[in-house]
Amino acid sequence: MSETARDPAPVARTGRRIALGVSYDGRGYQGWQSQPSGQTVQDRLERALADFACKPISTLCAGRTDAGVHGLMQVVHFDTDIERAPASWVRGTNRFLPPDIAVQWAQPVPAGFHARASAIARRYRYVLLESPVRPSLEAGRVGWVFRPLDGVAMHAAAAHLIGEHDFSSFRAAECQAASPVKTLTRIDIERRGAYWRFEFEANAFLHHMIRNLMGCLVRVGQGLAHPDWMREVLAARSRDAAAPTFAPDGLYFVGPVYAPHWGLPERVAAYDWA
User: Fold this and answer.
1) Is 22 in contact with 83 (CB distance < 8 Å)?
2) pLDDT exceeds 50 at position 7
3) Any idea which residues are catalytic in this one (predicted)?
4) Which of 56, 75, 119, 228 ranks highest by number of CB atoms within 10 Å?
């Protein structure tokens, strides 16, 4: 879950550019980005596209996700000289994908569109179960805490994070981002029964940033730290000042935000499920 790794060299423009919206369950994969093992979401998607198109296709995504992190609407683009209707790209590619990855939509886009560079914001959601008993049916799809959480305290802590800040305290050691300064525009926290939902929106995120923020919010929510401690952690600009990295289980890449003129879908059915 990051904007850390550098994209490969731009793909040569041939024919038309296609954007896809892709959803996936991240539990069985080593993250988004292609690896020698071939066990990543990108690897499986590109193999399916190649099987459907009968030739290799390389994709670029809006935001890479870590192992175990899910995608509600990852957006990718690729260039191709193959002529297919948008519905054919959806149905044809899904025919070759495993059940836990699915193309949700396909749309031709102008040559100037870039899944990553054209995004003006990115959104993540963390779903957290508060229960004395660990999750079962939803195991791997939600995070879990067994101590009660204080929503008022977490809201107060989150308020310290809004705006442009140096988020070094919430940055993984292996993060490759050029700058730790990001603009966090929104954190919404709400409870539905035993489940908490945390919504994050920013211009970009650092490697493990959401999971590190969650570790700190949960610590405050459990009464183990005062809400103002979040301000101290932020000011420290040191990973040692923050709580341990929280589990990836309940983390979802909701998707990128694009300017309206690109005309891309703004939501998929999985938004309602999560």
Assistant:
1) no
2) no
3) 66
4) 75
Between CA 271 and CA 102 the distance in angstroms is 14
Known binding positions for substrate? 124
3-class DSSP state of 20:
strand
196 residue type, one letter: W
pLDDT per position as a tens digit, 134-191: 999 999 999 999 999 999 999 999 999 999 999 999 999 888 889 999 999 999 999 9
| Count of H-run helices and E-run strands, the chain | 6, 10
Q: What is the CATH number of the domain that holds 34?
A: 3.30.70.580
* Dihedral, 40, 105, 125, 252 alpha carbons, nearest 10: -20
- Please state the rounded mean pLDDT for residues 231-245: 96
Q: For the purposes of burial, counting CB atoms within 10 Å of the CB of 26, is it exposed (0-12), middle (13-18) or buried (19 or more)?
A: buried
- 148 CB burial (10 A radius; 0-12, 13-18, 19+): exposed
Catalytic residues: 66
Q: What is the pTM of this model?
A: 0.91
Residue for token digits 């791997």?
140
- pLDDT for position 6: 41
